[in-house]
Amino acid sequence: MAAGGIHDHLGGGFARYATDTEWLVPHFEKMLYDQAGLLRAYLHGWQVTGDPAYLGVAEGIVSYVTRDLTAPEGGVYSAEDADSEGVEGRFYVWTPDEVDTAAGDPDVARAVRKWFDVTSGGNFEGATILRRPVGGPLTGPDAVEVGRRRLLAHRAERVRPGLDDKVLTEWNAMYAAALAEAAAAAGRTDWAAAAVGIAEFLWDRLRDADGRWLRSWQREGGARHLAYAADHAWLVDCFTRLGELTGRSVWTARAVATADDLIARFADPDEGGFFTTAADAEQLIVRTKDVFDGATSSANAVAASALARLGALTGSAAYTSHARGVVDLIGELLARHPTAFAHTVLTADLLARGATEVVVTGDRTDLLAEVRRHWLPDAVLAWGEPTDTPLWEGRAPGLAYVCRGYSCQAPADDVATLAGQLAGSRAEGA
Fold this sequence. Notes:
Number of helices: 15
Strand content: 5-15%
Order of helices and strands: EEEHHEEEHHHEEHHEEHHHHHHEHEEEH
């Protein structure tokens, strides 16, 4: 995907989908939720393999969202259209003459044309969608990187695709959650500040006077429409991730408040899981539940994952119980059709094995960095401001504790010991 035309090799980010099996020709529309999902995918790829190319793709996604989708007020817009000047993809494709003009130097132009296979015949309606050979390096020699920057600057003078300037609670929370995770893993303080800024925007602008969550915000008209279960579920995940990123207890408190709203307004007390709409929202003929994963994970899948993690962080059995209720609701379908419920399968696995709880006390940035270096899908992290939860009971300062079900190994006071305990926890859960 990163080599193909679905990936914007100049400005970063990904188009909505490809129309061919080689990932070459995209539907050029760019959606915020795709950036959020792919940011996490490439971040985890980098953490698992150490391949800097994966981190580079993640960096490109963040650069794109920051540059082209972030509103001056702090939220993130929903999407960019496929068309500009009435032609699909016109903003993104190149001819050799256009490359020569933008590069401004014959040697740079030749390097760019060769690197991205820009030809006179093109690969899309007489022009070229920039791409790389699958498996080939994504970052080129100096001349290519100079040319890439020049082409991006030249492209910025073109007529941009139309912008969908709605700020949706669900998609913003989804992206901020991914960005918070990425900021922690990559040690990027600028990403951390951006993630916090998005979440603060949501908290300040996407709630009504009574503190109830709303679905959508626009500069003209402000916030409107009652939020759905998916909005609440992603907000719980977002605030939990921000607590893990910043060490500030306010984010855990906001996650708890939003989780309580999710349960009170959307939970099905009889059969488990969560309805799409709130109990006091406009009454529909059928009150449905979103359980199938599609372009994004289902509302119930996200709710289950977020509540399971929040339960591990807070020690609240109620959150864990509601997460288990989603798994029980879907039941045998998880085993028979796992790809339709992939996100819920992950939560079922987490609940079956139990979360790994990691606590880092005091000012131990070395221990914190060691935890963040790994992809730990079954782990939750507490550090910074202590909270009134089982994770913090009886903890001595300046140590790391690796626990499962609040049963902990001996405290670790050095990176090597902690690394060994984390590796052992991963092996135990495998």
